[in-house]
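The protein record passed on for reference:
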Amino acid sequence: MLLTLLAVLVLLFLWTSGFLFATDFSLPTKKTKHFKHVLAIFPHADDEAVNCGGTLHRLSKTGSTVTLVILTKGERGTPDATLDEHLKAIRTKEAQSVAALLGISHLQQEDFGDGTLHTQQQALQTFIENLIAQEKPDLLITYDLAGFYGHPDHIACSQIITTLQKTTFQQISLWYATFPKRLLATVKLPEHLLRDPLFQTKRAAPTHKIFIGSSVFPKIQAWYTYKSQRASLTTGIGKLLPLWFFLSMVLFEYFADVDNSSTSAE
């Protein structure tokens, strides 16, 4: 009995310490109820779960229509980014399951070619421009101009959406999904995939956070649903405790409002 109590106290201490470390209390917490239609656009299935899965679920739960668009089938989602055509069907099925978990109103998955978005700028811009015009969202969510860790697909996606928002869709709010600097410093990122060595100078500092509360549970389920990406999703996370324990500490997700964000978190 004493050992059980001691174990519980140790876990409680670890969780509380992790929560305090992962939370940036200096940033304001924003409400999301006024957003009626949210359009999240990411290059790969799992980008949405990692960056804003809890927020997307919370938005859906509070009555917002949430559309998720994934630009590729993720055929390079291997540890060394080599091509595996079998991953297309696997990651498509995983994305469909995750969309259901997160309460996504509509999932649209395209096949622009994993790892090649930066070579299809014009076709991609036309597609995204038509998509935004058709969906008429009041909030766009995507990567920042650093692409999280310099991934060329992430950067291409962000550059196109940012340009369109600034030139054609200025009335639509644009949020970059990001993380506090302190949290980023503890996670080993797959920087062997980066193409832009100066990506850190383009990283957006978060301007606010969203409390996801109980939406952390479907977010955790989403991470586990992406079984094909388990190795990459657990990179940099300790092996002594299960993944869900670490994820449960992150009760806030972080965003940079493009109209109010600084250039870099560095």
Observations:
- The CA atoms of residues 15 and 245 lie 8 Å apart.
- The chain has a mean pLDDT of 91.
- The chain is about 40% helix and 15% strand.
- The domain at 36-257 is CATH 3.40.50.10320 (Rossmann fold).
